[in-house]
Amino acid sequence: MYLNLTAYQLLQTELNWMYLSIDVNGMRDCKLKMANLLSESQRIQYTIKTKTEDIPDARTYLLTLKEIRVKRGLTDELDVETMMMDALEKVEKELKKPLLRSDKKGMALLTAEFDKINKKLGIRKEELPKYEEALELKIAKVQLEELKKDALEAMETQKKREEFQDEKMADVKSLDLRNFI
Length: 181
Hints:
2 strands, two-stranded antiparallel sheet, mainly alpha, 6 helices
């Protein structure tokens, strides 16, 4: 995970967000047209964007990112969050006040600290798509295992039913579509 304070730079993906803009009485209301076509990283990014857009200070922003990570079940194996909070404390100590996200000078200092941490961890901005792909693969494997477990459980339940006792269980290899082509 690349350390930066904007949601788009956090996951650093090029997304094809589809927004439906509605202009009602001079107010612009943008809604995401999801249709369940977003990848897991895109959903995380959308969650980050919506949950953090009104947060004025950097500390609350980072704590919200941690909360989102925990809710999504993502682990912080490199203990990046602690390093980010330490960098924030260092910048706030230097500024002698809480860091607001609108403070360009303070955010530049924090970004510089994050860049140092990234360099120390060996994380390069160019490799972010690779990390995202690994995350998607990990999530897909977990979902596949859950699906397999559910299917086996359903098959076992059917097998135990009285009306199916005299029927033979289908051989999985015989159900392969390529055998019928």
